[in-house]
Amino acid sequence: MKQLLQAWQDNDLYALTIALGVMAAMMIGFALARFVLSRVLATLARRTATPLDDSAAAAIAATKLWLLVPLALQAGASMLELPARIERVIALVAVTGLVLQAGLWASGMARDWVERRSAAREGVEGDAIMALALLGFAARVGIWALVVLFILDQLGFNITALVAGLGIGGVAIALAVQNILGDLFASLSIVLDRPFVVGDFIVVDDLLGTVERVGIKTTRLRSLGGEMLVFSNSDLLKSRIRNFKQMSQRRVLFTVGVTYETPGEQVRAIPAMLRDAVEAQARTRFDRAHFKEYGESALVFEVVYYVLDADYNFHMDTQEAINLAILDRFAAEDIAFAYPTRTLHVVAPPAPATA
Fold first, then answer.
1. Is the pLDDT of residue 290 over 90?
2. Phi then psi for 277, rounded to 5 degrees?
């Protein structure tokens, strides 16, 4: 109170009026500058495709006039004769307000960047949107951590000891929640490395399904039976994952067996018949067809071809068409398919001995 009373006594009414006028003029200037800049930048953002003006517009929109009041107060106080202690307090409040406003500007620009990137990937890359949200959150946490540390430093706190203490506490917290942090970092690994994305059909060990959501802690799959499969992200990355959605083609192997009574001339012609059945189908590439082996009750032929489409239903439609083509061709050539058979040899009992 003594300091304030001394300041009142040291300045006449004219000086106080000048100081209030400077404060009012600066606040009006700040308000006009925000209004004009927001309108100009909004117009530029609509007319141009560059993200720079969008980020600047987001920063201006995050401007809070009440945080600029301390700057106007300091400008007005410079017109007065004030004790050193009051000047230090006003300067500290002005710096604090300016730092908080800078934090709002940086946070607004980070939020705008995330929103624009997410909007560009809406409905296309669900995992990328999640990664952007995590990065945006981490960026905002980092920005405000720096703001708090700077303000504490201005207030005279020993931030070196504070940061060291936070580091030790952070280690203790990390040890306590290491499983949660492991899933969090695994989630970031999935999003950034992209072993699979939302919509992919994957197989994990003996479980299979379509990826519906990649969360911070878990990944969820919809199985063929309809139930939801939930995997921990860290456990999921430790497993062997087969991603069928990423296939550009599918290798197919199947066998055909004919009876042992098939004449040798027809046996030699069968590989060509099998090749014709495969090559007659669209989006296939024939690899080979061979008389593979003598089975227990059949002459076994092995066929390998590629379906040039990852869709499983298309693969099954193609295989069905090939099977029907082979059936018709063998029927036309009078070639019999083999099936498991057993031949029973009946031996007559020995004749009874005569006396």
1. yes
2. -65, -35
